[in-house]
Amino acid sequence: xxxxxxxxxxxxxxxxxxxxxxxxxxxxxxxxxxxxxxxxxxxxxxxxxxxxxxxxxxxxxxxxxxxxxxxxxxxxxxxxxxxxxxxxxxxxxxxxxxxxxxxxxxxxxxxxxxxx
Length: 116
Known about the structure:
Radius of gyration: 16 Å
Oligomer: single chain
CATH topology: Alpha-Beta Plaits
Number of strands: 6
Helix content: 10-25%
CATH architecture: 2-Layer Sandwich
Structural class: alpha+beta
Shape: flat
Distance between the termini: 19 Å
Strand content: 35-45%
Order of helices and strands: EHHEEEEHE
Strand order of the largest sheet: 2-5-1-6
Number of domains: 1
Number of helices: 3
């Protein structure tokens, strides 16, 4: 089976990290380490991963024809904000979802990358 490419988007309530105690932060680091270390068990290969700056640093550009509106802030105002991502290859979406179960208690969205 040919490997597919997916993005794993991690959403959380902004401020939770800043308000977390050291034990909670240590557990999150441990879970991310386990996720990284066990990728091969699921046939997952990492292409990229990053944590994002707080939503207060976001800028949104909305285009309409030749016009553009630039606003400070995120595209959508929601309780949970996109905090980071992993770009991975894997044999299936199911493998990515099973592997993502090792991550901390985020809301996780998995999307396949379109072949263009």
